[in-house]
Amino acid sequence: MGEQGKRFLVIGAGFSGSLLSAILARHGKQVTLIDHAKHPRFVIGESSTPAAGLILRTLVKRYGLSELGPLTRYGRWVNELASVRRGAKQGFSYFFHQADTDFQVAESHPNELLVAASSALELADTQWLRSDVDQFLCDYARQQGVILRDLTTLKSLQRDGVSGEWATTVVDSAGGQERLQFDWVVDASGQGEAVTRLLGLPSGDLHGLKTNTVAVFSHFDGVKSWDALLAEERQDTKDFPFPADTSAQHHVLEEGWLWCLRFDHSVTSAGLVLDAHSLADGWQQIPAEKMWRTHIASYPSLNRMFQDAQLSVMPNRFLKTQRLQRIAGQAAGQGWVSLPHTAGFIDPLHSTGIAHSMSGVERLADIFLSVDSGHQVGVDAYGEQVLGELKLIDLLVAGCYLALPSKRHFEAYCMLYFAAATTYEKNRMDSDDCNLGHAMFLADDAKWVTAVRDVFYHLQELAMSQNWGEPAQFEAIIRRKIKRYNHAGLCDAAVSSMYQYTAAM
Q1: How many structural domains does the chain have?
Q2: Does a structural domain hold residue 189?
Q3: What's the rounded Cα separation, in Å, for the pair 98 and 301?
């Protein structure tokens, strides 16, 4: 290998690839960052969380990245980095709709769940306008000495079994080819899964994943404020812990849910995530726009929210996916490793993407900047850990889709995610080493994983029988399972689905 494994190839200039590249370069590594496209570009995966903010604050402090400090809190971001567009996220909101029925707020909140994650707007998390954030972090990586090769394709990838050196051939936009050598390859290409593809490695077992969803989405101008719509219809929202428009807004439907994320420059990210089991045969052939309008039209309140909306300049079209779920057969190998979003993806329901990617950046930076120049043992352990985290996220998400027919079952099952997230946050805050060695969402806690799996299979039985029984019994099961992880008063009937503050910090 090169001197102490100094030469790194990072494939993919999204935020996580750029951030890891910047950290490595700032601390003496030779980093080349390659991407087939160019910034700015349309990307989703926009909802940050308290865990993501905690990790980023740790990275800023540990690696001297003071320029990135404003990205860790909404208030600082607005005041110190106004040119990078974003929106406020004070928590998670869920509004439960029935087809052909106007949405109604009632005193006991049978149709809402609001979970606050910040005590004040200036301390809030953020919705990331990824075209701005990704470009900002890519530019930052270049400032740290990273060699950026955008509009460049990785044509081949071969490793010398004796020296451990990687030889790669890259092709630029003009067709020019160049052969390069590296000691380590980091795959941050996301669904491109560049290393898996170029090395001919087997994919993971999709049949083992419980979640099966598809998405239709875009960015919009002129989406009516949900808060304003409720006010116009004289809905009583005085006990909401935060305005719905400053949240990761979930509109829960019979066939899935709709996300709605508002940015400060009047653009709204919105997308339908649909349970594939609810879709009729042939849905793959239905144009994205028709699919969107058909589903929105079934819900009167949502139809009013989008009645004057127009597609934004970027991307200026509706986009539709095939199955969202993917998982790699392996997330690391000899001389290479994947960031979490490349290793797999489950679903946007719990906004796990940014935090999971951040955790990958943190763990890999620690491995590659440690005294040990080999790094392979740490990389292998990390790879196994990431795949375990993805499988746990799958269980945390899939149960929510099973519970769509019953709001109380859905809400109770969500508490598994919030228990895992807040415990992870608390553990980080209580640990001197910032909990670096521990998995996201408590995936390394065998008792917790077993508890989640047990609840999932119990819920699966209820869904198959279509006999939801008494919701209080299921809620009692959840309370027992999360008892030792419940630091935020979760699954409490007394709060009437209005959680004032749940974050650990």
Answers
A1: 2
A2: yes
A3: 10
Q: Which residue has the tokens 């990205």?
A: 71
Do 218 and 292 lie in a common domain? Answer: yes
Residue 349, domain member (yes or no): yes
**Shared domain check, 9 and 137:** yes
Q: Which two tokens stand for residue 494?
A: 């007394």
Helices (H) and strands (E) in the chain, counts: 14, 22
**213 strand-pairing partners:** 275
Residue 484, sorted as left (phi over 0), alpha (psi -120 to 50) or beta, turns out to be alpha
Same domain, residue pair 123 and 137:
no
9 phi and psi, to 5 degrees?
A: -110, 120
Query: Do 412 and 330 fall into the same domain?
Result: yes
Cβ(156)–Cβ(299) under 8 Å?
no
- Domain of 380? 3-75+130-201+325-498
Residues 195 and 335 in one domain: yes
- The answer to whether residue 253 is domain-embedded is yes
* pLDDT, tens only, 146-203: 999 999 999 999 999 899 999 999 999 999 999 999 999 999 999 999 999 999 999 8
Q: Which of 280, 299, 250 is nearest to 410 (CA)?
A: 250
Residue that finishes a domain, picked among 283, 298, 320: 320
- Secondary structure in 3-state letters for 295-330: HHHCCHHHHHHHCCCEECCCCCCCEECCCCCEEECC
- Kind plus residue range of the DSSP H or E element containing 384: helix 376-402
**What amino acid occupies position 433?**
D
Question: What's the pLDDT tens digit per position in 393-451?
Answer: 999 999 999 999 999 999 999 999 999 999 999 999 887 655 556 799 999 999 999 99
pLDDT of 42 > 60? The answer is yes
What pLDDT, in 10s, does the model give residues 68-94? 999 999 999 999 999 999 999 999 999
pTM of the model: 0.96
Mark whether 21 and 40 lie in a shared domain.
yes
Q: Which residue has the tokens 């329901």?
A: 349
Burial of 358 (0-12, 13-18, 19+ CB in 10 A): buried
Cα-Cα-Cα-Cα dihedral sign, residues 130, 362, 346, 285: positive
Q: Closest by alpha carbon to 263, among 82, 118, 92?
A: 82
